[in-house]
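chain and backbone:
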Amino acid sequence: MSTTESSSTMSPARASRTESSIGRAIRLGLLRIGYEVRAYFRQGDTVFFTFLFPVVMLTIFSVSFSEASFGQTADGDEITAAWFFLPAMLAAGVLLSGLQNLAIDIAMEKSDGTLKRLAGSPLPVVSYFIGKLGQSFTTGLLQAGVLLLLGFTVFQVPLPENAENWVTFAWVFTLGVFCSAILGIALSAVPRSGKSATAVVIPITLVLQFISGVYLRFSDLPEWLQNVASVFPLKWMAQGMRSVFLPDELVVLEQNESWDLPGIALVLAIWLVVGLVITSLTFRWIRKDS
């Protein structure tokens, strides 16, 4: 039998094995999502600082500024604090569920030897990352649901009535959470130990929230600080959420007085690619200096 014939005979078998391995990796990854989500909700400090924190902050701002007006709609309705801050808290929730949660979680898994054990197990690498990304998406989606329910039922925030706004919410949320998650995996390489992960990661996310229009009105920030914030994805996620939930009259408070949805998609896509490149270059199952 010639070499060509032998290769031709083996190709279907190889293709079948490849398809089988891919299918196995995806199946294990989907199962891993369930494990990761259950592990997430078993950690009280993680649940508070990533899942409940935006909920608590929305409640504090809504109550503290209940008498303040943040503008009016074309129909003359007052824009309340809850209405104004809800989009920002949704964006912050995406950042916390992705970047903060995974950066700390993976750094701790490196430190306590979990990743070293997983590296020596039959679990495919792809399945591990599917589990982490799926956890971020699932917890972020649940968190968004809690925020929307709280805003609508307790603080009477009007929700969009047209499908176009909800489509925008879907792609901003999805692109934002995967962008944040990939950057969180990349950032997990920075802490030198699991114990220092919280001290390294949380200040970064807090600074980003303050300069990106989450806790402060973005238009009130100095122009140079707005330009700095525009480099990072959170500013664009918050802007995208505001385009969904705030009336068009408030677009004048944005940079260039535009929601700039194409710009939001472009910046988040760029950061997603940057995060993938950094992750591929820096991610290790164990630290080199361990």
